[in-house]
Amino acid sequence: QVQLVESGGGLVQAGGSLRLSCAASGRIFSYTTMAWYRQAPGKERELVAAISSGITAYYANSVKGRFTISRDNAKTTLYLQMNSLKPEDTAMYYCAVQGNWGQGTQVTVSS
Alpha carbon 35 to chain centroid distance? Predict the structure, then answer.
């Protein structure tokens, strides 16, 4: 059983920053890949960033250089530091671990 709870979303002006958190509990493998997805109204859910048990990370081209994905030492909390936010980053952001999804946290960037 895996439980995921996202937090940290909110309303921010373009150019601002937010830090999303995903608290994971349950049977989480130390080596498992953890990821952030997002979905804007009328669009498909897309992969934003992912991080392995090591330092290897993936970023969608649209967020490279602006977002940073990280995880804590226990591998049970996932973060997404979002800088230089743009209106097009507006979406519901979801944490994904081992095929499980959180409830999502809304990020709205105004211009």
Answer: 6
**109, 89 in Cβ contact below 8 A?**
yes
Q: What's the CA gap between 70 and 81, in Å, rounded?
A: 8
What digits encode the pLDDT tens for the residues 7-51?
999 999 999 999 999 999 999 887 789 999 999 999 999 999 999
Measured between alpha carbons, how far is 105 from 9 in angstroms, rounded to an integer?
5
**Looking only at Cα atoms, what is the longest distance across the chain?**
41
The pLDDT, as a whole number, for residue 59 is: 98
Contact status, residue 91 vs residue 105, Cβ threshold 8 Å: no
Q: Is 22:77 a contact under the CB 8 Å cutoff?
A: yes
Residue owning tokens 């709870």: 5
